[in-house]
Structure formats: structure tokens, C-alpha cells
Please model this.
Amino acid sequence: MAGGKDTDRTRGARALRKPRAPLTIHDVARAANVSIGTVSKALNNNGTLKQTTRDRVIAVAKGLGFRPNDLAQSLHRGQTFTVGLITSDSFGRFSIPIMEGLEEELSDSRISVFMCNGADDPEREARHVDSLLKKRVDGIVVTGRRADPRRRLEVHGSNVPVLYVYSQSDEPGAFGLVPDDAGGAELAVEHLVKLGRKRIAHVTGPERFEAVRLRRDGYRKALAHHGLGEPRNGYLPGVWSEAWGREAVARLFSSARGGPDALFCGNDQIARGAADELRERGIAVPDRVSIVGFDNWEIVAEATRPSLTTIDMNLKDLGREAARRLIDMIDGKRIRGVKRLPCSIVVRDSCGATRSGRGS
Amino acid sequence: MAGGKDTDRTRGARALRKPRAPLTIHDVARAANVSIGTVSKALNNNGTLKQTTRDRVIAVAKGLGFRPNDLAQSLHRGQTFTVGLITSDSFGRFSIPIMEGLEEELSDSRISVFMCNGADDPEREARHVDSLLKKRVDGIVVTGRRADPRRRLEVHGSNVPVLYVYSQSDEPGAFGLVPDDAGGAELAVEHLVKLGRKRIAHVTGPERFEAVRLRRDGYRKALAHHGLGEPRNGYLPGVWSEAWGREAVARLFSSARGGPDALFCGNDQIARGAADELRERGIAVPDRVSIVGFDNWEIVAEATRPSLTTIDMNLKDLGREAARRLIDMIDGKRIRGVKRLPCSIVVRDSCGATRSGRGS
DNA sequence: GTGAAAGCGCTAACAA
DNA sequence: TTGTTAGCGCTTTCAC
Model:
């Protein structure tokens, strides 16, 4: 056919300038001495073909190192096997495991991930969305540095599924996946109670974080459940820093009267600061005071003296689950609401319990 | 033409099942009552068109929310405006700023980034490369958790440019971009020397890291340059941990004789461990001993008491530069070798200098 | 069992 | 100044 001949000439000409331009299905067809239709059928294992032909074509294609052009395939089938990952703010400590889990699970389904950093800039984010839509991604995942609700991602009437992970949308119909902060806090308190601790204080971050409020609620619920009261001035919201952990300990243990016998800290940095301050005051951890952190930021938890027992949000699992849910959505399933995935506790040396469970 | 009519029917039918399937250029053409050629010219601002037509078509397209299909464009022009980012091992603390810089700069050039995690698994990496090649990326960036050379990325005779950042290939023709570790070490020693320190020890990580060897060389070079000797047993390779920092201090200061008056540490964790141990031994930092770290891992450097003066590898800049170089390579420039980008020093409180420079 | 050709959505060369 | 059409590389009917 005329078209085919022209194509060949074009390719021949281009080959002079660009060595090793990707092979096309035509090249394979010519080499195997069959039509392109046959090649397609052979490679995609469909249609009716004599087994020998099929094998021969496949062998030729492999021999040539033929790599079908996904763009062409996608154009045809209307599915690209790509998704976009947009971070509201930036990539950070929490994004990483989420990304890893997400990417791992998606790539198992042969789906590629576009990485887009919104950088806290709505305009930048909008440009990213635009470019994702032009690239016809099959879905979009939104994540962030914190799990609090954000304004919805504007997709301009496109029908791409959007999933929020470690992030929530303010729109009602959206689907979000976040850690169960309250449950994590309960886990921490349960652990301390089982160890016989009675006066459990809670030193945590700023209350504008939803996570802080949820963990506080979980902490209180667990205390109540065991008939324990919250120690007087035992709930200390503050900031997410070691310095605050030290300061909080200073406050809690300054009065003559004993102070708490356990600290549940809102993150591992606070816990570390607390541990340092207690040591410097000669208050034995875990003998006199137990500490539980939050985040299982391993590098911090393991460097703390003693190493920190802490709550793990299982962010990698969150990422994996996000991938699975997104695939469901791409397949047409409609899901909405906020799903909270369980945290777990990682026992190290800061509580005095027998060291067990996931040690690292 | 018959084809066009068929197309329209197909789209009509599909519209019943899939609401809001992306518009095509045909839809715009119909709405604006012009041919698709005209639409293309109007939107791409080329060809010769009456200004009024151009404006009208653009207005119609915008009104409809038309978003041209990048797949089709790419298929046509043989360039996809996408690149792949492959990590050898995993995403980590060092990858983040690199990714950010890279993504930022690339997205300014309207290039999207596929995120691929090699996860230390050659097979997985190969699958990723394969999928990138099938997606016809314009280039590939390889990065890793450490800057040491790795085996070359196998692209099976494709001619996509490959760039290594915070990573190097063992193949001779490759191009890699890494921080100037030796230079960074010199910066650290210079700083200490200027402050009048004479006995500068170096506590660092495992020598199998190229970075460790380079920093050691820079340290020695700077000492020699100032006519200073390396203190006896003053070079202590070990591991990258706080515990090692503490232990090293214990060794250095156990003997009756004074010990060093400055510590240059191979990373901020070691520096932090050292600072803690010195404080606990009642040795004043920075009054009696100065400390310089490496990495400018802000969360650690700032939490250390006193806050750490440290070397910054400027990884975000490295990422940005990688993006620019990759674009050059895509444009046909051939570059090879290893380029080392300068580090800088971030002065905080651990050396006793007037606090100045980039404070955070 | 295999080949021919229409078409995925777009661009660009050529006609009109 | 605008419209028509041949591709880009692939899949999938439909003929043969």
C-alpha cells in the first residue's frame, strides 16, 4: 500500500539522522515477512494464528528488540496505564513511604506514576493537573505533608478518578485514605496501662492539626475506658519539636509531687526531647517513667536512649491500599468517604516491656 | 468524509456510557464551524489564519474546556515531554531534595516525570526501564541513596539520554552529577582553622562509601594546606550513627591529655552524637571544642545542642542542574564525565563563630 | 490463517 | 485564508 511505502521511506530518512530510532511494528512485519496485523495478533496473543507463525513473529520481534509504542496503544484503547501523584505541599518524610507503597503496588499492575509537586502553590498545582489531563492519566492521587482536609483538586469536569491519601478533600463526594490516629493513640495508652502505668500525660503538637485532636481524643477515650483520669495539666499541646518535649518534661516534673509515670508523645521528636530531658534530670526511663512516641521514625526512634516504643502509621501500607483503591476507581467502582487504616505499635525499650513485636 | 462521520457516531455512542469523555479537536471544529486544520492552526498559533477566526476558535476551545491529547501530539512529533526518574535503591532523605529540584526545573520546561523505584532489585529496575522506553520518554535520570558508582543502566540499544545524579555509572561514556565532597570537607576545615582551631579530628562513616574517602582527602588536604597535622588517632572512620559519634568522643577524650579542639563529622547524626557526649562529659561546645557536621539535615542540625554548623550538599541545586543538563542532552548535546557541584557551609552555633550566612 | 484498511486524536503539507 | 488528507504506530474488524 502507498501509505506503507511512504512510511518506510520516512523512517529510512530519519534513520540516517537519528540512529536507532525505535522500531515499529512495520519493521517487525517486514523482517518476519508477514503483515502488521499478524504481528499485532502474535504479540498480543489474540486473533487466530498458526502457532508456528505466532512463534516465529515473536522470535523475530524479540530478536530485533522491538518495543511497542505505548503512546500508540494508549491512543487506540483510551487507557494510558499512567496515573499522577500530586503532593499539595512538598515531598517529605511522610510522603516517601506512601509514594513507595503506591508506586510498588501500581507498578505491579504495570501502571506508571507521574510525580508532581504542588509546592503549596495553587497555580503550580493547577498546571500539573492540566498537564496530567492532557497526558490522559487514568487517575490522580493527591497527598500532602499532613492529613488535614484541603480544598478539592479541580479537574475541570474531567471524569478521572481522584483519590486522596494522607490528605482529605473538603468536597463531600471524595474518597480519602488516612491513618487511624485515634486508634493509634488508644494503642499507645493500652500498652502503657498494661504495663501498670496510671498517670499518663500526653505531650503533643499544635491543635490546628487534625491528627493532634484525634490522637488526643483516642488518648482520652482509652484512659476513660480503663477508669483512669487525665493527670492534672497532663495534656500539653505545643509544637512538633524536641525542644518542646524537653520543655514539657520540665513543666511536668518541676513540682515537688511526682509527676506522671508515663508520657504519650504526639511524635517521635517530642518523645526524644522528653527522653533526653528525663535522663538529664536523673529520672529513669523506663523504670520510673515510660515513653511512647508516634510515627516510628526509625532513625530517631532507634537513636533515642532508650530506643523508643512508638506508634507506626503504616504509611507504606496506606500507599499500597491507595493504589488498590485507585485501580478499583479506574475500573469504574465509585467509592467515597474517609477510610482510616489501623496503626500498629512498635515496641522498643522506652516502656520497660519485654521487647517484642516488630523490633525495627 | 466517511471516516469523520464514523468517528462522530462512535463518540456519540461512547458519550452515553462514559459521560464527559475528553473532547477532541473535531468537537471544537464542529462547535466553531471550521475544519480541524483550522483549529490546529489556531491553537498552536501557526499557519496563516484571519485573526478573528483564530480568536474565535480559541474562545470556543476554551469555552468547551478542550484539552488537546498529548498522546496524539507526542505520537506525531516523536517527543513526549516526559522523562523517567529511577532510583537504584529507594527514595530517601537525600533523594527528596534532588527530586524536588529536578521536578521543579523540568516542570518549568513542561516536562513531566515518571517516578520509578528500583528498590535495589535489578529485575524491577529493568522492568521500569522497559516501561519507560515503551512510553518513549525523552530521557532518564538515575539516582540513588549514595553517590557511589553503580553498574550502568541498561537501555538495550535505545538512544535515550541517561543522566546520573547523586550516582555514577561504571561505564566510561556516562554523565554523572555529584556533590563535591572533598570541597565540602575543605570548607569545614577552613572554617575551623579560621576560628583558631589547631587539633581537628575527623569522625566519619564507613570507608566503603566514596563520600567518606573523598571527605577524608579534603580534610587532609585542608589541614596540610594550613600546615596542620592530623591529630594522632584523629581520623576515625566508623558508621553513620549517633552512637558512633558518642563512642568516638569517648575514645578521643578518654586519655588525660586534652583531646582535639575541633571535630569535623562525616554527617549530622555523628555530629549530634558527639555533641551529646561532649555535653554529658562537661566539655563545652563550642567553647572548648567546635563541631562541624555534614548534610545540613535541618531537623537534626537545629535540634542539636548547640545547633550544628554543617556542610550543605545543595542537593536541590544538584537536582535542578541535572534537569538542565538532561534537557541539553535531549536537545542533542553530548556530555560525559563526572561533574562535582560545590557544597556550602551553614553556620549555626556549634563552632563559636558569629552566626552568619544562611541561617537555616 | 492471513492481509487490508479504518481509525485512535493530532499536525503539517498541500489544495482549493 | 481555509479545508483536505496523509501520516504518527498501533489494534481490530472484516475480507479473502
